[in-house]
Here is the input.
Amino acid sequence: MVTDSTEILRALVGLKSVRVLRYERRVKEVDLVIELMIGDVACPVCGGPTRVKERPLVRYVDLPVYGQPMRLGWRKHRMVCVDLDCSGGSFVVQDHRIAAKNCLLTTRAAKWATRQVGGGRTVSEVANELACDWHTINDVVTLYGAALLAADKKRLTRTTAIGLDETRFVRLTGENTSYATTVADVDHHQIIDILPTRRFTDVARFLNSQSENWKQRIRYGALDMSNTYAAVYTVILPRAAQVVDSFHVVSLANKTLDQVRRRVQQQQTGHRGRRDDPLYRIRRVLLTGEEHLSETATQRLESLLQLGDPNMEVALAYRVKERLRDFYRETNPVTARAILTDLYEHCTRPAMPPEIRKLARTLNKWFDKICNYHLARISNGPTEALNNLIKRIKRIGFGFRNFDNYRIRALLYAGKPNWRILNSIVVQ
Here is the structure.
């Protein structure tokens, strides 16, 4: 048995009013037994004096000491009122500094584990380091992570622009796939919350549950041409300018261009694209920005279009795509709106390919929301990026079935919580 007072004090940093009963360094772990030094304890029912009924020993997982796992034994005091007529029964003296109620880790170990998992480490990895099981770590991360997110109000109060986007929670076949909605602060690139659904009523209920000051502060709402999210903004945040994400608009133009290329390819050759077909050879060049093409690539594009696109349909779709990119490069909102207006009128001409006319109808439907990009130049890109971080959490967790665990893990990792608050959190 080791009774070195220096080692004991190091193992008990931050614990006051504690008496060390035993300290032993074994081959595989360090064992430490303590008890609280308590004074007079009043009965919670009648307020009268109490006595110690028993002193059960409860063991907790603590932080490793000297490279060895540590187990902290807390000899608690179970008290009982001395008044035999009192109906209070017995109770245990608790101290949140040592461990929270119904928690198998000490407070300092639980907060450390929460910080580690929130930083991107797997639950299994942290559990192996503390020499305990997976559920022990996951339970404390859920408990303290939820407390941290509830206490960190700044995530909700400082934003003026939010974004809504959907992501798969559980990917199943058919209509059984479960989707979640990410509510992001696109100003500060952090997640505000994750909702277990993408239905209008549920998303609207969440936004409506926020304070009036918060709702009035929101000036912009980013989305990706989703009718559901547009309706949510219209009903709950009518003052917010809705901004359609620029990436999705240009992506739609690229998709339209590729559809035209595939159709023309089929009409000219009678088969899908093959290696030596002119339009197939430039399929990637067509989707590259014109300013990024070298002189050689530009000449190659023009010559192969002449060979594979006799009616100039693919060339028209290419110019439409580039003109849409000009709209986003323009810095003057008035000029940008004029560019989009001219482009829409050009695309609606009867002689235009059907794919381009369909694109024109989409541009007309979302016209004002697309033009709103030039009000603040925000996009839903940060929300998409945060969804990628969420997918990383899903990968290292090998998928999730419990949405609460999924939400807390994702918010701790990508929500940028104020970790300093964790030190002051008290979980009873």
User: Anything to note?
Assistant: The chain has four domains: 1-99, 104-151, 154-245+379-417, 246-376. The longest strand covers residues 161-170. Residues 246-269 form the longest helix (24 residues).
